[in-house]
Design goal:
The complex is a heterodimer.
Chain A lengths: L7 H37 L5 H4 L2 H13 L2 H33 L1 H16 L6 H8 L4 H24 L3 H9 L4 H12 L1 H25 L5 H10 L3 H29 L5
Chain B lengths: L3 E13 L4 E13 L3 E5 L6 H9 L6 E6 L3 E4 L11 H5 L1 H5 L4 H14 L15 H13 L5 E5 L7 H17 L3 E5 L3 H7 L2 E5 L6 E6 L8 H4 L3 H19 L1
Parallel strand pairs in B: 3-7, 3-8, 5-6, 6-7
Antiparallel strand pairs in B: 1-2, 1-4, 8-9
Helix pairs in contact in B: 7-9
The chains are: A mainly alpha, B alpha/beta.
The structure holds adenosine-5'-triphosphate and magnesium ion.
Chain lengths: 268, 249
């Protein structure tokens, strides 16, 4: 692509597109800043009570305090590690189950009603059971993340696998492909977009599971900080934890998006 | 008994589904010798694809038996290039699935890519190629394992008329020089006559063999020249009538 060869129309189009993007980004940043500013001013003027709503300056002070005593990183790390294991076990286990259900049609039919019911069941209801069974360390929290993500993973992967064009499978069979080869050479590659979007959903769900688990039983983590903060009425701490949690969710999402771009290059 | 390379003995096929059963093929016998080019024409939905599936061994016939020389190359109705593989990688699909053929096939596929003008597109993805190029890539993929018998299921139906005439000529040349045995399913009577040694006309579903035409031209004429031959019209009218009678009855 040589810049000199661009027609005036193309240049105008590109400039307009660029301008549009800049405006969108600026507006997004301005909105956030305006929101923080209004919050700060309204709290200073005592129109709202900063004791229960907190305010940006207090949150900043809290972050700095947590940063200096190092507990910020400890809590983030705990939540991150729990989410990581929940994600690995949930998507890994879900993937294996989905492959198994694709492999055996009967198994798929047999398991269908169970999956539907498990999917509809609010997993948080199983929390107390998990605590009894798995103790009060990280295990029940990881278990909660796993439970929340695994069923959705299985259901969406299986339907993705079954959507593969049967004629592509026929093509491989005409070359004498085994079932394992059909899986690895056609079914998995053509379900890659489904696999990735499932991972994106799953990462978010794992975080939900971890925070729910930490609400129920924990000694550390962002979920613990939120519950602890609200119990001792340190709402600054609660707000800070929520903001960090949001940042963490965004980072996890972008990590998956990064892999998506690399793996789906052939779509471009 | 003649040494047929493909031999169908009283093949019948009935599909079962929860609501109904469909008789697709009824008692077809056919023998094809080494190097012969046979076209199959018939009303749409009569069971032509089913017949090729059976010959390839993808579908087991409810009755009858098949003898044939393996390996068989099967080219489906659409090109079905896998969009996440490059053209080269797509053409190597067959060898890739039968690992031990890899080493042998690689130079052959490179040679074919070169011959059919796809060498410079070998590292492109399918979506970057035109319909005619994709079709040629699909043909190379079918040839990569050096099959003795080729089954072609309307391989040119996705192409526009111009490209189609050229590709048919191409393909005929390729298959003729390599002395392949070919069974081609097509809707296009002119195409069938221009390219084959024999044309098998099937009845409407369930498919039976209605008539077999032994085509007599000065041999080794490429398809485009055959279309000028005086016999061409004669065969065309005869086959067209045969199919037409069936549509109107
Ligand atoms: N897997 C299947 N299960 C049930 N019925 C089938 C199946 N495959 C094909 N049929 C039926 O068998 C008949 C023949 O189908 P087939 O695809 O062989 O026809 P065709 O001659 O190739 O048609 P076309 O000219 O449209 O390509 C059709 O009536 C079709 O509905
Ligand atoms: Mg067909």
């Amino acid at each position: 692509m040589l810049a000199v060869e661009q027609s005036p129309d193309r240049k105008a189009y590109l400039r307009k597109r660029h301008l549009h993007r800049v405006i969108v980004l600026m507006t997004q940043i301005m909105l956030l800043l305006a929101f923080l500013l209004v919050w700060e001013l309204v709290a200073n003027a005592r129109l709202i009570d900063p004791f229960i709503t907190s305010q940006p300056s207090r949150m900043l002070a809290t972050i700095l305090r947590l940063h200096y005593d190092g507990s910020l990183y400890m809590h983030v790390w705990v939540t991150f590690v729990e989410t990581f294991w929940g994600f690995i076990l949930g998507t890994g286990g879900g993937f294996l189950c989905a492959v198994l259900l694709w492999w055996s049609r009967s198994l798929n039919e047999i398991s269908e009603p169970y999956l539907v019911v498990l999917n509809a069941l609010p997993k948080v209801a199983l929390g107390p059971l998990l605590i009894v069974w798995l103790g009060n360390g990280s295990a029940p929290i990881i278990g909660m993340a796993l439970l929340i993500s695994i069923i959705v993973t299985i259901i969406s992967l299986v339907s993705g696998f079954q959507d593969v064009d049967p004629d592509k499978i026929k093509l491989l069979q005409s070359f004498g492909a085994s079932r394992l080869q059909i899986l690895t050479k056609v079914v998995l590659p053509s379900s890659l977009p489904t696999i990735i979007s499932t991972l994106k959903v799953s990462v978010g769900l794992c975080l939900v599971g971890v925070i729910m688990g930490e609400f129920l039983v924990s000694k550390a983590g962002l979920g613990y900080l939120i519950v602890y903060g609200s119990q001792v009425f340190k709402l600054d701490l609660v707000m800070v934890s929520i903001v960090i949690l949001a940042a963490m969710a965004a980072i996890l999402y972008f990590i998956v998006s990064f892999f998506e771009k690399r793996l789906l290059r052939w779509q471009k | 008994m003649t040494a047929f390379q493909v031999e169908l003995n009283h093949i019948s096929m009935t599909y079962q589904s929860p609501t109904t059963e469909t008789e697709a093929i009824s008692d077809i016998c056919l023998g094809v010798t080494q190097g012969e080019f046979v076209s199959i024409v018939g009303p749409s939905g009569c069971g032509k694809s089913t017949l090729l599936d059976i010959i390839c061994g993808l579908v087991k016939p409810t009755q009858g038996s098949i003898q044939l020389q393996r390996p068989v190359g099967y080219m489906l109705q659409r090109d079905y290039l896998l969009e996440w593989r490059t053209i080269r990688h797509n053409c190597m699909l067959g060898p890739d699935l039968q690992k031990h053929k890899m080493k042998e096939a690689r130079p052959y596929v490179e040679h074919l890519l070169e011959t059919y003008g796809l060498a410079e597109f070998a590292d492109h993805y399918p979506r970057q190629l035109s319909g005619g190029m994709r079709q040629r890539a699909a043909l190379i993929r079918t040839l990569a394992l050096k099959p003795d018998v080729l089954l072609l299921d309307e391989p040119f139906s996705a192409l526009d008329y111009q490209t189609r005439l050229a590709v048919v000529d191409d393909v005929w040349n390729i298959l003729h020089t390599e002395n392949k045995t070919v069974i081609l399913v097509t809707h296009d009577i002119a195409e069938a006559i221009s390219i084959s040694d024999r044309v098998v006309v099937l009845t409407a579903r369930p498919a039976r063999v209605k008539t077999i035409y032994e085509l007599r031209f000065a041999t080794a004429d490429p398809p485009l020249q055959r279309r000028q031959d005086e016999n061409f019209r004669k065969y065309f009218d005869a086959i067209w009538k045969e199919l037409d009678i069936h549509v109107s009855s």
